[in-house]
Design a protein that fits this description.
globular, transmembrane helix, transmembrane, 2 domains, 0% strand, membrane, DUF1295 domain-containing protein
Length: 260
């Protein structure tokens, strides 16, 4: 039953954001909800599981660091801004029953995806396994190291881009400094990397079910590379000559030295 309780708590969280989004007339606020949504599942499972293993505490801690940072960053950036072009396109496509469709196709769907992504963390906290041997230490430590590599990369990408956009002289220009010099989507690379870190850390439970932990980074990496991340932005700048010049010398995802 704990699995159901966790989802119901998560669903209530997303419904609160749905109400806020309708008041603000901005369904893009679901992006703000995303990070803390995974945290809600992680913390709920930690409390309901009542295991408090070292692996569970570390994995939950890493999740809180990621989710809190991401949601706060997006809150500052998006809460009082115009609705993102992706969600505007949805509105134009739906035409009728927009609020109902937003509930079903955006917020309810996001809650389900959020639960699936959080499932390895949930399992880590709910499955009884207090073993923490040398292999567990290595896996959790390696996972934490990979997490912080990705986390730092993502923070650098977001912070440098934010500063770049605040400078009026950069209007219409393409960000090509800092980590953006080595990847056209360093924030997405950082996001995928830190989730691989969390996935590897969950393997520290040394349970056969713990291998489900790799589902999250696999799904997130696939979505970022082929569905919601890289493809949408690459399409948006398809006709931008400055961006195409930048693209000709810069790796699309994995950080690499720029081509001459």
């Amino acid at each position: 039953m704990n699995y159901l309780y966790i989802y119901l708590i998560l669903l209530a969280y997303f419904l609160i954001w749905y109400v806020i989004a309708q008041i603000k007339k901005n369904n893009g606020l679901v992006d703000i909800a995303w990070g803390m949504g995974v945290v809600v599942s992680a913390v709920s499972s930690l409390i309901l599981g009542d295991q408090y293993t070292i692996t569970g505490l570390i994995v939950t801690g890493l999740t809180i660091i990621w989710g809190l940072r991401l949601s706060l960053y997006l809150f500052k950036r998006n809460f009082n801004k115009e609705e993102d072009f992706r969600y505007q396109n949805f509105r134009n496509k739906w035409k009728t029953h927009v609020k109902l469709k937003a509930l079903l196709y955006v917020f309810l769907t996001q809650s389900i995806f959020s639960y699936i992504i959080a499932l390895p963390i949930i399992l880590t906290n709910l499955i009884s396994n207090k073993t923490f041997d040398m292999v567990s230490i290595i896996l959790v430590s390696l996972g934490a190291l990979i997490f912080f590599i990705g986390f730092i990369f993502e923070v650098l990408a977001d912070h440098s881009l934010q500063r770049f956009k605040k400078d009026p002289s950069n209007k219409g220009k393409i960000m090509q400094k800092n980590v953006w010099k080595f990847s056209r989507h360093p924030n997405y690379f950082g996001e995928a990397t830190l989730w691989w870190g969390i996935g590897i850390a969950t393997l520290g439970t040394m349970n056969i079910i713990s291998f489900i932990g790799l589902i999250s980074p696999l799904i997130i990496t696939y979505l970022l590379l082929y569905v919601t991340g890289v493809p949408l932005l690459e399409k948006k700048y398809k006709t931008n000559l400055a961006y195409q010049a930048y693209a000709s010398k810069t790796s699309i995802f994995f950080p690499l030295p720029p081509k001459k």
